[in-house]
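Lab channel / #folding
Pinned by the channel admin:
"Please post every new chain as: sequence first, then the structure tokens as a reply. Keep commentary short and put observations after the output so the thread stays searchable."

First post following the new format, from NK:
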Amino acid sequence: MKPQVLIAGAGPVGLTLAIEFARYGVPLRIVDKAPTRTDKSKAVAVWSRSLELFERAGIADELVAAGVKVQAAKISDGAETIAHIGFDGLDTRYSFVLMIPQSETERILEEELAKLGVTVERGVELKGFSDNGTSVEAFVARPDGSSETICANWLVGCDGAHSTVRHTLGKEFRGNSVATDFLLADIKLPGVIAHDELMMWWHRDGVVAFFPLPGDRMRLIASTGPSTNHAVEPTLAEVQAIIDSRGPGGLTATDPVWIARFKINERKVDDYRSGRVFVAGDAAHVHSPAGGQGMNTGMQDAFNLAWKLALVCDDVCADRLLDTYSVERSPVAAEVIASAGHLTRVAMMKNEYAQAIRNFVASHVLGLHAVQNVARETLSELSVAYPHSPLNGPHASGLGGPKPGHRLAPADTDPVSGREPKLAIFSDETPPDLVAEFPDLLEEKTRPSVQAGGIFLVRPDGYVAMTAKDGDWNAVRAYLHNFRRIGTA
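Reply from TO:
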């Protein structure tokens, strides 16, 4: 069968996208030039919003079982605690950050994809493509030296920061690089480091952070000074010296499984779509690892694009719907770049007086309850919203609950999403003729958390599309007609 979609790149973003397409019954192929899955931990944080979205696909429990639940984040100057932000107040079943090596995340996702009947084609490298307006011809090379032209209706580049898809499209990767080198190490670190907190030390010589991992391991990230020659491999002795000078003392690093240097780039493309070709994840945006937002932002790109492209592939909506992918997701990446970059620069302050002022201000501001709420909502990505989306329909005045473009928090009884990219309607009683009129677009659900007397129309990714007062079915019908016709409200 001719694939509707070809995905280039089988990291967490590509695998998430492939799972969603497979769930929705969209024929696809997914290729990756690497011969095997990564064996490195790489991105290790999966935040609450991502877990909520994986729950809709029935994968969240398996991810949680393979990781470590971290309940708080702590910032210290070495002598005193500057801030302590707990995640237990989050309005979600996943009131924690899940620390899990990327190698495990990819394993779980790839195994789930295989259950859905799709196999990752490894060692297959995308060399180029052409978009003729009605389909995309992609040219790939195989490990045995042979080549193939894959014809698909759509192409999605999930092929990382050095994306072939982005380069072929000629999209400018606007931004800059941080002029400081960083080091990461996955080690064992017995001692006083808590295994249920993210910990960061703002030291006068630089920042060092510790992230718990499964198997009693720790991920260490530290700044190491101005950019130098990355050909010089870091050593365990260098890691230990950083721990001794910046950590709490009395800690000995052992059993390293990965030590590497890296640079921070802060870049993104302006538009995630070009005709029948899209970019997602690191192919579209890269930023500081501060806050652990990168992989999550990319996977949420995939959740956003998948249901829209599935509706277009099924001829339910016009392809103008696909323009909303970039409109919605680009501002989210811009905000992540800005906030993660700001946190990185604040943590790396060198001037002694500036550090003292920073610590004083941060300890007071981050101690405020309202500020802590904002911080945990931002880190968990539960605050991600699309308030200016062209898909946002009307909001009934005086009706409680989230407005269009905002997340509808899953209730304890919320069922796993089905295999069709339909909009869910929550109301006291939905007229059967309305569901019958839009059988390919609408599914009725009941949910105790939705305010009685109101109608909530919710997108497949859990964001509110529109609201109406009880009985105002004409408003719902008008929205659905418009959504189906042009893909924009």
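NK: The longest strand covers residues 174-188.
TO: also worth noting, The chain has a mean pLDDT of 91.
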